[in-house]
Amino acid sequence: MKAKIIITPKKAVLDPQGKAVLNALEHMGYEGVQDVHVGRFLELELDGDRAALEPKIEEACHRLLSNPVIEDYRIEWED
Amino acid sequence: MSTTATDTAPATPAETGQGSKFSFGVLQFPGSNSDQDCVNAIEVLGHEAHYVWHKDDQLGHLDAVLVPGGFSYGDYLRAGAIARFSPVMQSLAEFANNGGWVLGICNGFQILCEAGLLPGALIRNRSLQFRSEFVHLATVNHGTPFTRAIPEGALMRVPVAHGEGCYFADETTLSEMEANGQILWQYATADGKVEDHANPNGSVRHIAGICNANKNVAALMPHPERACQGLIGSDDGQWIFRSLIEHMSAKA
Question: I want to staple A22 with a disulfide (CB 3.0 to 4.6 A). Which of A36, A68, B150, B192 is the partner?
Answer without folding.
Answer: A36
